[in-house]
Amino acid sequence: MKTNSPLLMAPFGATSVLIFGVPDSPLAQPRNVIGGNLVAALVSLIVLHLFGSSPWTMGMAVATAIGMMQLTGTLHPPSGAVALVVMMTKAPWQFLLTPALEGSIILVLCAVVFNNLAQERTYPKHWL
Questions:
Q1: Of the candidates 73, 85, 81, 82, which has an alpha carbon nearest to the alpha carbon of residue 29?
Q2: What is the pLDDT at residue 9?
Q3: What is the mean pLDDT of the segment spanning 79-106?
Q4: Average pLDDT, the chain
Q5: SS3 of the chain
Q6: What mean pLDDT do residues 98-103 have?
Q7: Cα separation, 26 vs 86, whole angstroms
């Protein structure tokens, strides 16, 4: 499905640095990757559809997404950029599933395979 969200490459690129480069990091664990991206997408979609896209609502979406990730224990730094992508592209509600959820799951599954091919690496350290 075409999402018209090419800017999503930036947050997924940053996610890739974490899950492939520092897979032991708490911020790179599946709960944080999937949960953080979903929380950020949901929060920013709510802000977008209630208040529109403007500089102040972009800031509000990112700040609220960070707060909600902290509250839910799903902090994932690249998810702040997910919130910006939603706001900048005026994403539809479908963005929550594709690409946010599907892309996050695919990245985590790739990280599980890649990181566990080497004997000295294991990923994830924990799922939840």
A1: 73
A2: 73
A3: 95
A4: 94
A5: CCCCCHHHHHHHHHHHHHHHHCCCCHHHCHHHHHHHHHHHHHHHHHHHHHHCCCHHHHHHHHHHHHHHHHHHCCCCCHHHHHHHHHHHHCCCHHHHHHHHHHHHHHHHHHHHHHHHHCCCCCCCCCCC
A6: 93
A7: 25
pLDDT reported for residue 6: 57
Whether the pLDDT of residue 36 is over 90: the answer is yes
- Asked if residues 87 and 57 have their Cβ atoms less than 8 Å apart, the reply is yes
pLDDT score, position 12: 95
Maximal CA-CA distance, the chain: 50
| Under 8 Å between Cβ of 116 and 122 | yes
Cα 37 from Cα 31, distance rounded (Å): 10
Structure-block tokens of residue 69: 């990730």
**Contact in structure between 101 and 34 (CB atoms under 8 Å):** yes
C-alpha 55/C-alpha 126 separation (Å) is: 37
Q: Compute the average pLDDT of residues 68-77.
A: 98
